[in-house]
Structure formats: structure tokens, C-alpha cells
Amino acid sequence: MKKITLFLLIICSLQVHAQKVQGLALTPPMGWNSWNTFQTNINEQLVKDIADVMVSSGMKDAGYEYLVLDDGWMAMQRDKNGNLIADPKKFPHGMKAVADYVHSKGLKFGLYNCAGTKTCAGYPGTRGYEYQDARYYAAHEVDYLKFDWCNTEGINAKEAYTTMSKALAATGRPIVFSMCEWGQNKPWEWAENVGHLWRTTGDISNVFAGTKDMGTWHALGVLKIIDLQKGLRKYAGPGHWNDPDMLEVGNGLTEAENRAHFSMWCMLAAPLIAGNDLRKMSNATKNILINKDAIAVDQDKLGIEGFAYKEKDSVETWLKPLENGNWAVCFLNRSTKPVSVEMNWEEKPIYDYFSKAILDATKNTYQIFNIWEKRVEGNTRHSFKATINGHDVILLQLKKV
Q: Are strands 218-220 and 144-148 parallel, antiparallel or unpaired?
């Protein structure tokens, strides 16, 4: 019996390793999630509508591939055999039919559950059902699992997420594992071989600065979340990402704030999971979400997070090494007033001790491309001067000439 148990443990460990090297999430995952806009008010028609718009709007072509249903997709009780059931009113044709529709559009499908006894909205959680639920996801051809952290009193986070990771691997189906543990137990220190991405903070809100009062807790604004990312870049890379939460682009921020929010997520090599109502988004919102040059910064194959290089007045200067010796540079204006900036590229070489990359404009010349203005701004032989509006950014790509 001991030999059989040991054999099974070895098989599970091999399967976990196999899942990690199947080529999943080699760049930060991109997609859409239902929670920020719809919470539990989701249904079959909404999924079809969103899938259609992901294709027609150009989001699919821009790289958004996962359509993820968050909390509220299931019935309030499991069936007599302990299996999860899709809510029959919201999803009258069952979850497999929904997954099939999403797949028919060339997209991938994701579902949500929770490490606790119940989900955050009170639906059946996974505690004690990890392998059974994993088989359900595989049978319904799920490609992505978001796994939350509500109702987990007395549960060890590392154990709970490791168990679910092994359960997913045991199905043999490639499933991206998104750990929504809120950063409470520092998952970045232990989750590289457990999940493909892990939340680093509590929930985001549709405010740029400060927090949003949710009654019994406070959701975080964009700047608060950015501040909490500092010091975490060494833990991220291809196949394992820090996750500062889903995007609030198009959910009430100003156009400048949307642009700044998106730019900084790209600089952080963060998963780009849209959370707005795609059916009603403005052209300005769409153009931010599908800007191919900004997305290229996020999806750069090196998978290196950017870092805060300096701060002057209210402007932070962030740099991100890119492949082929190129760089992304983002000037973030944290204030509400316009601020002038100047960057003398030849003042001194900039060395990134983590990646060993060096931006040396004294030896190399870089063409400067303004990503949001879509124009070349000269090169690094001359200082860069500009004015940044309040709560806005200037996002540049520096390409070696």
C-alpha cells in the first residue's frame, strides 16, 4: 500500500511539472472576465455576446483569448453526486454548450471557483472537492481557472493551491491556473511551480488614486496597486506572473486614467484581463485596449517586469527591458495637474541589476517611438522634453538604430 501511495504521489508531481512546461502563459495571459462589470449577473446570452464582440472589435486579433466567467455561474447546491452544476436559469443549455460556443469563435474558455467552502458570493466552493471539480473543468473543456480565497478560515494557502494545481494537472488538460489569493500569504515566494499567475493585492476598483469604500473593506485604486508591486519583479517571468488584478479600463476612469492604467499594466508585464462591457465600449476605450504597440510591451518574450527608475515632482519614470536590446519607458504623472518632463538619455548609462540589461545611449542610438501618439520622436542623441497631463502617461519604445 505504501509503494502504491508513493507511486501515485510521484505521478502527481510529474503531472504538475508537465503542466508547467506545456507552454502555458509564456507571456502574460490576455482575456476578459465578467466580474468587474456584471458580478453574478451573468448568463448564456451574455457569454455569446461577449465572445462575438471579442472577435468583431479586434480584441481577439490583438491577443485577447480567454473569456472567463467569474463567480455566480453555478447552482447554489451540488448534485447528489457532489458535482458542480451550471445554474439552469442562467445557462439552460449547460456549461459545455457555452464552452463550445466560445471555442467556435477561436477563443478559450475560463471558469471561477474558490479554495474555501463557499465562493465569495456564497456558491459551492472547492474545499474537499478539488479532484472532482478539476475533472468537471476538463470534461467541459475549460482552459483557464480563476481560484479565489473566500471562506478559507483555518486553511493553509500553499497547501490549498498546491492541491488544486495537482488536481488540474492530473486531468491531463492544459488549464491556466490563476491564483486569486490577494497576496495575503506572499504567493510570489512559493507559487512559481503551483500557478501560472497569482494576485499580489486585494481587489482593484474603478478609481485612479486612493481607495473605494465597499462597506466592510476597501478596494484599491490604480496607483495604490502600482505602489504594491515594487519589489516583486524578481518573482515573475514566462509561465509565472505577478497579477495586479483585472483591468478597469472603460469602467468610469477618464480617458487619460484609462491610458495610464493600461500602460502601467503593460510595463509591469501584468495579465491583461479586460473587465468592461465590451458591447458598449467607446472607440477611445477600444483603441486603448487594442493598441498593438502597448500590448507588445506587455507581451515581450523576455517577460521582464519594468521598474521605477526615478521620481521627480509628481512624475515617476519607469523602464522595462525588451528583447533585442530595446526598452520601454513610461512617464507616469501621479498628480492631477500637467507636469513638464525632460530626459537626457546620454547623462549616464542605466543598468538593470535584475535582468543585467543596460540602456547606454552614450554608446548606442535608440529611435524613440511614442506609443500613444503613434509617431517617432527623434532619437536618444537629443534630450526628450514633453508635458504630461494630469493622471496621464507618455509611453515610449526605444529601439536600437
A: unpaired
Q: What b-and-e string marks burial along 12-26, b requiring 16 or more CB atoms within 10 Å of the CB?
A: beebbeebbeeebbe
Residue corresponding to grid cell 543585467: 356
87 in active site: no
Can you list the residues of the chain whose pLDDT is less than 50? 2-3, 5-7, 9-10, 14, 16-19, 21
Reply yes or no on whether 70 is catalytic. Answer: no
Strand partners, 310: 317
Each residue of 286-339: pLDDT tens digit?
A: 999 999 999 999 999 999 999 999 999 999 999 999 999 999 999 999 999 999
- Reported pTM: 0.94
β-strand 30-33 against 272-274: which pairing, if any?
A: parallel
Q: Looking at domain 15-298, which CATH architecture does it have?
A: Alpha-Beta Barrel (3.20)
Grid cell for residue 232: 516583486
Domain regions of the chain by residue span: 15-298, 307-400
How far CA 313 is from CA of 225, 310, 347, in Å, comes to: 20, 10, 19
Helices (H) and strands (E) in the chain, counts: 11, 20
Number of neighbouring beta carbons within 10 Å of residue 89: 9
Return the pLDDT at 11.
53
Residue 214 in contact with residue 184, Cβ under 8 Å?
A: no
Helix (H, G, I), strand (E, B) or coil at 311: strand
Catalytic residue among 87, 133, 143, 148: 148
The pLDDT tens digits for 232-254 are: 999 999 999 999 999 999 999 99
What is the model's pLDDT at position 14?
45
Please state which CATH class domain 307-400 belongs to: mainly beta
**Which residue is catalytic, options 71, 133, 143, 203?**
203
Check: CB of residue 343 under 8 Å from CB of residue 280: no
Short-list 39, 63, 43, 60, CA closest to 51: 60
Pairing of strands 176-179, 211-213: unpaired
Scan for cell 488614486, then name that residue. Answer: 209
